[in-house]
Amino acid sequence: MISRFVIFGDSLLDKNNFCRISKFNSKVCPDGFFSNGPTAPYYLRDILETKYEKKISIENYAIGGALISDNNPARQFTKYSFPISRQIKDYAKKQSFSNNDLVIINGGCNNLFTTLVGDFPYLHPMLPFKITKDYFSQIEKLIELGAKNILYSTLPDITLAPFFNLKISKDKLIVKLLKKFFQHRVIQINKSIRGNHIKLKSKFDDCNLSLFDSFDFMRLLFENADEYGFTNINSACIHSLGGFDIKGQKQLDESLSIEHDPESSFFWDLVHPTTKVYKLVAQNWATLI
């Protein structure tokens, strides 16, 4: 029976770590979430507490902007967004895992997003395999530390986010090709993640390793938007990148307004889902535990 969640990852799982460490406050991140409300682990806790009739504690080390094993090169994140590898090391300095822990880990999206910074390293053909290798290296580290129950995910289709509808270039063809290229990268990474998941389950057959296919689930929600109550799947409720503009400058709260109803929208900001999406994700997670 699960009695504690231990969380490692990025802004899709962060609760107040980036805001606390960087002393960052923004209406885009109420209560420290990069959404308009709780993310999936907190809804999953509610589901399992009802199921087990027992309280579940949460230790959250996830930080917005985190890469898997490298520092984020974007200036607004470099000093604060500790990579997942460091998050795990910081945890390991204090404690190990018990059989009643559920470890939740995600990563990889920021590794792709930050390739838009600098020398266009996203053209490197081996990048998808490096991301997968780094990701599973951290998962194996968790197992070495005694984790028996681990939940991890494929990458969502980041090209469906409103960010990719911005006028990154005046040339529409360049934008179209860039979007298609990134989608191909995500598909490559996810294929590798699925393959590595099968190998890992065989190697560690005494562990409960669960893979959530966030790519397929996101596609499912988009294709059946009306059924799930989404009338807006293309536009962000608030025009922001987690409280920053596209140039990495902090946005003043008075310059931001909520332009769409979060209750019927998929995206809270230009890259992060609304809490409604996270609730649906948690319901799916619960079937895997």
Describe the structure.
The chain has 289 residues and is an alpha/beta fold. It has one domain (4-286): 3-Layer(aba) Sandwich (Rossmann fold). The chain has 8 helices and 7 strands, in the order βααβαβααβαβαββα. The strands form 2 sheets. It has a 5-stranded parallel sheet with strand order 2-1-3-4-5, with helices on both faces. A two-stranded parallel sheet has the order 6-7. The model has no long low-confidence stretch (mean pLDDT 92).
Measured distance between first and last alpha carbons: 10 Å
Number of domains: 1
CATH class annotation: Alpha Beta
Strand segment tally: 7
- At the fourth CATH level, what is the homologous superfamily? SGNH hydrolase
Shape: globular
Mean pLDDT: 92
Structural class: alpha/beta
User: How is the quaternary structure best described?
Assistant: single chain
